[in-house]
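Anyone opening a protein record will find just a pair of labelled lines. A complete record is shown below as an example:
=====
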Amino acid sequence: MDFIDLLGPDMSVKILTHLDDPCDLVRVSTVSSSWHRFVIENGLCKQLCLKKFPEFTGVAHVIEVDNMIEPVSNVLGSSMNWECLERNHNVYAFLASGLTPSMKKNCISKAISASSTDNYPEESVLNTLEPRERTDYRASYWSSEGENDPSVPETLVYKLISKICLVTEIHVQPFQAYFQHGLPIYSAKAVRFKMGHPRYPMELESLVADNITANHVLGDNQFVWTYTSPEFPMFQENCLQQFKLPEPVLCIGGVLLVELLGRVQKQEMDELFYICISHVQVVGRPLSPAFDVKIHHPSGKCTLKYCPQADSCMSSTSSSSTRRDSSNPSRLRALTSSLMQRGVRRWEQIILGALLGSGSVEVDDQ
């Protein structure tokens, strides 16, 4: 008995939109050719993706055509074209299964570089990853070099924890010099953010691997910025200031630039203007480790790929734990049950990758 035929399209859509896992929708679409068409024609994967990630509305509005990426509006007859609907199904199914379900308040992986540093390594940009103002009984902050001109800007560059992150807000805390007379706060006048990817990915990866980027000034020509935020005023206050972006931004490439515009505090010792930052955070949804991105074009066009190897590594770790606990029969039974559940989830992911075509789909942030 086909309940979709019996209940009609409206009630069937209402029932299927209560599913909360993209793997469930993929399985539904394989029951029969009529169910396959029903899932795709009604955009159920898109509805699921936007239900799980409402901030994604207006971001993932792209498809792939002949291995090239074009906006939906550029595709001939795209409003009702079956190929367009099928590609949207692929894109949203991958995004819904790839983005982490919960927001992370620190999507920064590493500090890459600063435009200047006053005393390295004591005042390195690496200190901005530490949420506390003091570590090991000393101040933890980054400081720029001093300038006579208060309009001279500074920049901090960070690598995010995933090559695709859906970023909603960024937090920056100016540093208050508690060891100086008057307890001055070395904030900037305003802040602006850019997101994008390295122009030469291999060169950046080698710098990060060698741990020399914290005092290595990278030029703007080494990055491609696909998004620039408006300017936000920064207050001269010792607190973690929150800057919410006008709309969630899909950062493809995993690189964030923090532009600190203008200086407000002069140091009594040398009569020069400085900017000092104690902490930076990025709030967003990163792509899970089982997904990866290969960038093809400076605009941010990329291939979103499913990587089962990441799951295999986690399974190997679980297997070694099982061997260590095999001497305890009751514990072994519990672990066997747990592994069987993980195995089902693992097969769901394999099915998802297989049904969506060789485990990759084209996505673009335009």
Remarks:
- Confidence is low (pLDDT under 50) at residues 61-78, 321-366.
- The longest strand covers residues 241-252.
- DSSP finds nine helices and 19 strands in the chain.
